[in-house]
Specification:
Helices cover about 5% and strands about 35% of the residues. With about 180 residues, the protein is mainly β. The chain starts with a strand and ends in a 52-residue tail after the last helix.
Length: about 180
């Protein structure tokens, strides 16, 4: 993701000072693992920066309309993604702070700037469903012939023609006790 460089000074120089930022990143996609989600309308953000005395607190939301392939039938899927953006940027250099782990926060650079693109991307990644579906009740593809079962039953009707050598064939007769 392209950087979103934010200048903390002079607006956030005093304790309690805050700044609101709204805008849209001109990003056409973001990645979650190996999966790429297309964002043709960009990524919107609504952020608040607050000087806490020891650092700059970043909070807000990021949202986008994302396009990907359905995990079950491979048809196009469109999702509205919205996530909470969080970050903390110390006013002091890391090497002068005691008792803190370096991965707990970032620091402002020498010019009082920081990059908010990372927390925005993280918010979207965390808010993206683990399994992307074109619709909640997607039936997927036939494992035998590959037909889209959302369009109706396939010609092979794979439920009656299970290969007995398939290790999952024994599950066909599995019955659950309903208590």
């Amino acid at each position: 993701m392209k950087p979103l460089i934010i200048e903390a000074y002079p607006e956030l120089s005093e304790l309690g000072a805050f700044r609101v930022l709204k805008g849209t990143l001109d990003e056409t996609s973001y990645r979650r693992g190996a999966e790429v989600l297309e964002t043709p309308d960009g990524i919107s953000y609504d952020l608040t920066l607050t000087n806490t005395g020891e650092g700059i607190l970043l909070s807000g939301t990021a949202s986008c309309t994302a396009h990907a392939s359905c995990a079950r039938c491979l048809a196009p899927a469109t999702l509205e993604i919205s996530g909470d953006v969080e970050g903390y940027y110390s006013l002091e250099p890391v090497d002068t702070l005691e008792g803190y782990e370096q991965d707990e926060f970032d620091c402002l650079d020498e010019d009082g700037k920081f990059d908010a693109a990372g927390p925005i991307e993280a918010a979207l990644v965390y808010a993206t469903p683990f399994v992307i579906l074109c619709k909640e009740d997607c039936k997927g593809l036939c494992p035998t012939c590959g037909a889209d079962l959302n369009e109706g039953p396939c010609a092979c009707d794979s439920s009656d023609d299970i290969d007995p050598d398939n290790p999952f064939a024994v599950l066909r007769n599995l019955k659950f006790n309903e208590e």
